[in-house]
Specification:
Mean pLDDT: 91
Bound molecules: zinc ion
Number of domains: 2
Strand order of the largest sheet: 1-2-3
Number of helices: 5
Protein name: Transposase
Shape: flat
Oligomer: single chain
Helix content: 25-40%
Largest sheet: 3 strands, antiparallel
Length: about 210
Amino acid sequence: MTVNIKCNYTIEIPNCNMETLTAAFRKVLILFLRDFVLVILNKFATEYMNQKIKPFKCKKCGNNEEFIWKTRRTKNTKITTIFGDIILGQMQVQCKNCGKKLYITRKLLEIAPRKSMSEGTKKILALLGSLTSFRISEKILKMVGVAINKMKVWRCVQEVGAEIGFDLDPKESARGEADGTGIPIQGIKKRGRELKVFIQEKIGAECA
Ligand SMILES: [Zn+2]
């Protein structure tokens, strides 16, 4: 799909030095992202509504063909992105079969109800949180103009950590290499702890 996006922002700017311009750009960036998302979502939603089979279905009766528009922008929902939070008015359609209304914004964005961000964003924040302390993560994000607090980074680390499996794969080779590596741990007197790492060899590949 080709999308034509026109920007129009009014900004108060006291001078034109690079620091001021960068600071102003950070503020515009998140506004632009919100508008960018809204324009593209609307385009796709319009196209889907013209298609016979929709990429969503009625929760009540299962219909995925006959819907009418209710509104293009209603109840707000907040989505956290790697550029910060954006607030989107949700698009709502109504099932022609049973009359049930449904919000389609999150379905099209592929972000589950009540989840604040996409899986990709969660993984990026979790990686950041695992590379440095949560406090520093928040500082790094702030430096690039992103207002995401350390507790949000902490939650991402917990969620992604809980999903990672550390088992051996029975389909791969019964060989591997082991070593120990130092892991810095926040809040303890010693500099860190040693973590034993085992790398399983894949069939057809040799350990480097
Ligand atoms: Zn229905």
